[in-house]
Every structure is written in structure tokens, then in C-alpha cells.
Amino acid sequence: MTDKPKVIVVGAGWAGLGATYQLTKQGYDVTLLEAGAQAGGLVAGWKTAGGRSVEAGIHGFWYPYRNIFSLVKELELDPFTPWTRSAQYSPAGLEVESPIFQDLPRLPSPLGTFAYTQFKRLPLSDRLSALPLMYAVVDFDNSDDAWKRYDGITARELFRQYGVSERLYRESFEPMLLVGLFAPGEQCSAAAALGMLYYFILAHQADFDVVWCRGTVGEKIFKPWCDRITSLGGKILTNRRVSDLRVDGSGKVTGVICGEETFDADAVVFSVGISGMQKIVSNSAALQKRREFRNLMNLGAIDVLAVRLWFDRKINIPRPSNACFGFDATTGWTFFDLNALHDEYADETGSVIEVDFYHANQFLPLDNQEIVTIVQQYLATCLQEFSNATVVDSSVIRLPRAVTHFAPGSYQHLLRPITSFPNLYMSGDWIITNHGSWSQEKAYVTGLEAANLVTQQFSQGNMAQILPIEADEPHIQIARSLNQNLRNLAKSMIPNFSLP
User: Fold this and answer.
1) pLDDT, tens digit (0-9, with 9 covering 90-100), for 3-59
2) H/E run at residue 244
3) Regarding the domain delimited by 6-47+216-299+412-458, which CATH topology (the fold level of the hierarchy) does it fall under?
């Protein structure tokens, strides 16, 4: 390029780094602004005063994360563990063990998930009560119409409506919601629940298989990624909190304002979480004039608590990753054996355990020692050996409003990649996309989608190649086609016809 368009990207997480990397590769003049002290924000991780690594929770990388796995390969990184097995606990003890699904004979979806998951207490009759729910799974095709049909009711209503037994819901589906959508079923959108469950569990047998970063994501992935971006000419500026936009008379954004600094822009990509975006809107006169941005204030976010404990002895933990339910009515939590997952702790003489609580409102006001005591008690309920161990060091990280809350009715307030500003684009794990992915993969994909919109705007450079999610299996495709034909027929006969 002889004339490089100036692009400002706001937020240095998966979405922002994805957009920055793609546009920098295409020769754009890209500046990435991060409000925090380092790229990656909360995901990046940091060191305690004693030099130990901590981060805001542990992040898994699931089998369907095709684009992130492709990125890591392109960067020539090797950050991940092998595929791992997981377990699920309640106060009654071990409830579920999950195998590595891709190692088992492949069955039509979702039979493999149900056949190979090892339930320890849940009766077969309860598991079979999930069969009618398959209609909703087929009917929800991630289209705009499907989101609108199911977003108005709660996940709890959905499961009750389709006859899922109370026990199956309480011991299987709600735990998935608590650690997948971070809230109990009565507070989750049915549309979000169907989208999340289908992507991670029900679409294909291997989708629930997961690997973990062998250290903090910041050290293993974000740092070398940022180095690659800067080597290509991209600029990454930290401690830059956006306060407003400069907009010309035609409605075009011409600059991004960070306090006393203004960064000239030909295009802007926002890539921040919902809480961060709401803070920007609260301070920005330019954004407050647009209804779509004012409506963001209707969206919610959920508190997270991340606790890391160092014990005086090694504890036998059968599975490296574990989810837990039933300890608090509205809170899900997970615990991880970092001796097995992180290179840094492989040779520790005592166990290093990460424990993350979602929808952790009631825990955040407690002091650190109270939290550590509760966490050890919970761990000892799952595995008795924890009761005989002593905590020799700990880290407690409170993360208020850290993750998006997909509440019933929230879809109408989510933003799309293209905004009412002709050169302002959105990305992030809460942005509407037809790709079908969730969580970190969705954030990264929407960053690439935003970069492609910038490329289209200026007609300079190549489009990012975004890998689609694996196609539905033939029997699901046939069922969805039949269902859509019946819908269309019903609508032609009864114009106001609608199913839930």
C-alpha cells in the first residue's frame, strides 16, 4: 500500500488481537489500545509478589476451536496439553466421568455423548427424559429467527417444557449452564443455552474434548502473538482507556480519544467485553447519541472468583479438570490440578490447585482467608485428601462483572459487527455472528470478521480465511430441513403461526 489507512482497535483480548494481527498482515497502519497494563487484559495473567503465576481463571480450548488451533499453528507455538479427561462432583461425591470422546467409535450425534459419558448415580430413566429436547436442538439453527424464538424464555422453562426430569436438569443440565453460561437456568436465555450446549456437547461426539494451556495464556500465546504483531509494524499501547470518539459531520469516526490523547482513525474496531463497553458508553457523548449503544446498558455481566492454592503435599487427583455443582444453589465452580496442566508446577512438591467460581456474587464481599477456608472445605468434600493438607500460599482474585450474562431477552440488545457509524465495527464474544462458535473461539472469529469488514471498506488487502464449524451430521441436516419446511407450510396456512 502507498496510502495506509489508519485503524484503531480497542481491547487486546482474543477479538482485538485477532483483528489487529489480520489487518497488520495486510499492511494497514494499526494501533491497538488496551485499558489494562498488558495485552490480554484479565486473560493474560500476572505474577504474585512471590513470583508465582496466576490468572483470572483457567481457559479450556475445545475440539471445535478450529480457528484458534490454526492460529497457534501459524504462530509456530506449542502451548497446549494433550486432550484431557474430566469429572464432575457434587456434595455427594463423584457424579460423572467423561472420556476422550474422539478415541471412541463415533456414533451419530448426540448418541455418543450420552452413551460414553459415565454417570455414576443418574438413572437411565432420567437420562432418557432428555430425548424430547432434541426437537428444540434441531429447531434452533443459530439463525436470527431462532434466536428471537427462544431468547424470550429461560433455559429452565425450556427444559421443563420438553419434559426433562427434575433430577436430570439439576444434576446434568444446570451444572453445564453454571460453568458454560455462568448462571442458573432460570437466569439464562433458552437460545443461549441451546447454542452453547450444541456447540460444546451435542453437535458432534468429539466436541466436548478439551486441551488446556500449559501455563498462563498471556505467556504461552498472547506474548508471542503480540511480538509477531509488532514485528509486522503494528502498535500495541497499554494503559489507554478510551473516553470518547471524535466524529465528523457525516457521522464518520475520525479519532479515538483516551483522556488527553487522540488517535486519528480511518476505521475503528471495538473489541472489549460488555462491562468495558458499558463504561465507554457511559463516558462517550458520541456513543450516547446512538440508540444501539444506549441499549447496551440493558445487558448484564456476572461476577467471577478465581482462587489459586498451594498445598504442603501432593494430593491424588484422578482427573486434571473438574466441575462441581450443588454446593451453592446459584453458583457453579471448577477445580484444576495445575501440577498436571502447567509446566511451571509439574515438579512442585505440593499440589497447586486453581478453583474458579461463576455467579460468585455472595463470595466477593468475604475476606481472603474466609474464601480460602471455604474453598478447602469444598475441595475436601470432593476429595477427602484435601482435608489433611495445609495451604501454604494462596491467591484470591475478585472479578466483578467479568463475563457476559446472556439473560432472557438480551438478544435484542446485542450488537452486530456493523454499526450505524459507517467505519466503526464491533467484535467480541457477545457480538452477534452466524459462525456458531462460542467463548474464546467466537471472540477470535468476530475479530477476524471485523478485520474483513475493514478490508472491504478500503478494498485493500486479502480477506481472512475463517474456518467454519464442522457441518451438522446428515441426520441433523435432514431433520432441520424437514422442520423448516413444516414451519414454512404452517406459516403459509396460518400467518401468525409460531412455535416457542
Assistant:
1) 899 999 999 999 999 999 999 999 999 999 999 988 886 677 777 777 888 888 888
2) strand 244-247
3) FAD/NAD(P)-binding domain (3.50.50)
